[in-house]
Write a structure and sequence with these properties.
With about 50 residues, the chain is an all-alpha fold. The chain is built from 1 helix and no strands. The protein has one domain (about 1-50).
């Protein structure tokens, strides 16, 4: 979402805002994946101990 304004500062601010939003989204994805793999490992350990 890059706005084409005559003022360059507004354009840069919107770019940095979109970058920070994207960064937050990537961090959420990483955290979600980490939790998912943590659950998988716990499940595997549980089933391995049943044998």
């Amino acid at each position: 979402m890059i706005r084409t304004d005559t003022d360059g500062t507004e354009k840069e601010e919107s770019q940095s805002a979109s970058k920070s939003g994207r960064l937050a989204e990537l961090k959420e994805d990483k955290a979600r994946e980490a939790r998912r793999w943590q659950r998988k490992r716990a499940t595997i350990k549980r089933f391995a101990s049943m044998k």
